[in-house]
Amino acid sequence: MLLTKLWENDLIKIRQENVNRISVLDGKMWDQLYPIVEYLDSSSLPLFEEEVIKKELIGMAEEALIEGITLEEKLGMPGQEFCDQMLSSREKSDRRKKGEYLVEFAVHFVWFLTFFSIETILTNQIELDMSTVILAVIGAAASLWIHDQIFIHPITDYRGKIAFRSKKSQALIILLVILCLIFADWLLWRMDIRISIPCGGRIFFAGMLVLSYLMLLVRKQYWNRRSKEYEWA
Q1: Is residue 232 part of a domain?
Q2: Do 197 and 127 meet the contact criterion of CB atoms below 8 Å apart?
Q3: Contact 186, 102 (CB under 8 A)
Q4: 222-231 pLDDT, tens per residue?
Q5: What CA–CA distance (Å, rounded) separates 143 from 110?
Q6: Per-residue pLDDT tens for 167-217?
């Protein structure tokens, strides 16, 4: 499908590859690798470069397993010291990392706003309920947070692609997100704040679809261009 192809990019591919390899990693080895991965996450490295380093570390952990040695022995030094050496020779940019997160948020926001504005199209309203905008903001933030937990900050339950502590915790998080959405919708419905749409609901929705497509295209090209700076495939 066109939508699936647009949504996929090299950042998603390398993240998925890292998660898949972690999911079959020996538990004791993961206990050694996990603190290093967490330390990397706190760095100001651009997102793709961070995933490339994680891939290298996972490869070294796999080699250590085959050789029957610890990860620290394979690295030749403590994990944090190894990371510090790698980070000192690489470009760090906190501004770029924040910008990349902002782009990801904007893509999710536009998609949620498009979805939540379906009622506006059906009735061809000339006003957009403020609750729709707030719901899109909450939805985008929640989806990014959940995505972050799955791909970037795997918690102690390392087996499986979804790395939450348990299915119960995952269900609780989703429930809390839904409750927040319902509460925000109820609160803003009572306040009855509306934003005028000069072009009408259907034209607005069509414009949102075009904007969604363009943002996905730009996002895909950006991450695929960034991936060419590294040897990772």
Answers
A1: no
A2: yes
A3: no
A4: 999 988 888 7
A5: 13
A6: 555 566 667 667 776 776 676 666 665 666 666 667 777 888 888 889 889
18 within a domain of the structure (yes/no): yes
Query: Which range of residues forms the domain containing residue 109?
Result: 2-227
Neighbours of 72 (CB within 10 A): 15
Helix (H) or strand (E) holding 127, with range, is strand 127-129
- Better pLDDT: 103 or 41: 103
Residue 233 lies in a domain: no
Determine the Cα–Cα distance for residues 30 and 18; give it in Å rounded to an integer.
12
Residue 138, C-beta contacts closer than 8 angstroms, at least 6 positions apart: 177, 180, 181, 184
Q: Please count the structural domains in the chain.
A: 1
DSSP H helical segments within the chain, as ranges? 2-7, 10-23, 27-41, 47-67, 71-75, 79-88, 94-116, 118-123, 130-151, 167-191, 201-227
**Cα–Cα distance for residue pair 144/176, rounded to 1 Å:** 15
195: CB partners within 8 A, 6+ apart? 127, 128, 129, 130, 133
Q: Is residue 42 included in any domain, yes or no? A: yes
92-137, pLDDT tens digit by residue? Answer: 667 787 888 888 888 888 888 888 777 666 666 666 667 777 778 8
Query: For position 163, what pLDDT does the model report?
Result: 45
The residues, ordered by sequence, that sit 6+ positions from 102 with a Cβ below 8 Å of its Cβ are none
